[in-house]
Amino acid sequence: MSNPDRFNVIALGGLLLASTLFCSGGCEDSSAVRQAEVQAKLADVSRDLGQMPVIMSGATDQARAEAERKLNDLLAILSDTDGAAPGQQSAASLLASNVHRKIAHLTLVETTKVEADQRSRRETLFGLIDAAGQLSAVAGSLETIDTQTQQQHLAANRQSAQTRLAAYGEQMAAADAPIAALTSANRDDQEQIDQLRAESNELMREANDLGRAAGFGAYEQSVQLDRDADRVQYDVSQRDLELEFSLRPVQALAQKQADQTQEMIAAIDGSSSAIDGLARTFDDEARSARASIDQLRQTIVAELDALNAARVDELQGQYKKAAMQLEIAADEADKAARNGRNEQANAGRIGAARASQELGQMHRSAALAWQDHITLLERIEASSGALESASMVSAQLSTARTARSDSRREAKKAYTSANEQLDRITGRAAGPQLEDLKQDVQAAIDELSSNGASEG
């Protein structure tokens, strides 16, 4: 859990406690009874939300759907707060904000998988483009009937490929140890998390049995254990992020590149043997190479169409869904700030800033993905000599560049909103942790402004 999120959880606990004290001082009339009912719902939702497991990219569709169903159930509970005190309304809004952020995370988990698949397919396309270029060079050389020069060229290519193949092997081997270490650490920490959650639940049941006054100590211990579990869960999440987005992708990419390089070596060997044994049939070999280039072009066109369809149809919808949830999360947190006072208001502002920051991060990630896609399209455009492809990517390049600009603009807008919320935070909440967050947000705004200027 990041520092701002940790503050948010602590502040939410304070909101719930403050609204409890508010209810206990009321008259025993229908209003007080209603506020007590709302308070119990808020406590239940807070507990259930804290106990929900973190859904990572390896989770099944069923697990994600079940998690989203449970989160929507919590939103339904939080929507029934008629008659609640202002402090309870603030707590309910902040809880709803956290729920919407979790729903957005579920969508972004799937988006991350699709983006990872896109990266893999782009690497495959880069390999196909390279192969087409190399085949074009081979065909041109065969057409000159310069056997000796061509053999030297193939030998150099093969040596280069062997060198790359060895480097890919070293990359894969280098990732084995850290992957094993992080996986082992996560397994150990998960056992600790489960133990802490179990102890927290037991204390919470004890607090409920004893009542608000006698059970307050048990309640505090339960909350502390949950916080301890959150801290350990944050470490697990960080390792999962490193595994999913750093180590394993690097290892998988190295394996894919090694396979492609091995295929390239085999192709080079085949070409070399053909030149040795069929010096008088170079024309046929050249025609075969040209046919292979044509097949590669067809494959590249089909792959590129599928890649574009996934970006425009699937990913754009997922990004819009996540953006909607994060925008609602920011609105709910802002509502919590308006209904709360002092630290309650600060907690809402922090929640709104955090939701807006996550929205900015999402749009900035989308912009980076579009930039990678643009690089691929520009590479295809630059390979028009071998692929005759300049016309087929022109419209796609225009669409991609527009989408990148839109994503950067939305990212800057979200970060700016986060900055405005952070500027409104006062009192004890405006400490070093918030200053670090403000610096991160401002750095993102500066980067996006720089990128926007370079586009212009």
Give a written overview of the molecule.
- The chain is an all-alpha fold.
- The model is unreliable at 1-11 and 20-27 (pLDDT under 50).
- The chain starts with a helix and ends with a helix.
- It has helices at 3-24, 30-51, 61-78, 86-144, 147-210, 216-277, 282-339, 343-382, 384-387, 390-423, 432-455.
- The longest helix is centred in the middle third of the chain and has 64 residues, at 147-210.
- Helices cover 89% and strands 0% of the residues.
- The protein has eleven helices and no strands.
List keywords for this structure.
456 residues; mainly alpha; 0% strand; elongated; disordered N terminus
Largest sheet: none
Q: What is the C-alpha radius of gyration, as a whole number of Å?
A: 29 Å
On the 0-100 scale, what is the average pLDDT?
83
Question: Low-confidence parts lasting 5 or more residues at pLDDT below 50?
Answer: 1-11, 20-27
Shape: elongated
| Topology, number of strands | 0
Alpha plus pi helix count:
11
Report how far apart the termini are: 38 Å
From the structure provided, what is the oligomeric state, counting identical versus distinct chains? single chain
Q: What's the order of the H and E elements?
A: HHHHHHHHHHH
Helix content: over 70%
- The domain count comes to 1
Structural class: mainly alpha
Strand content: under 5%
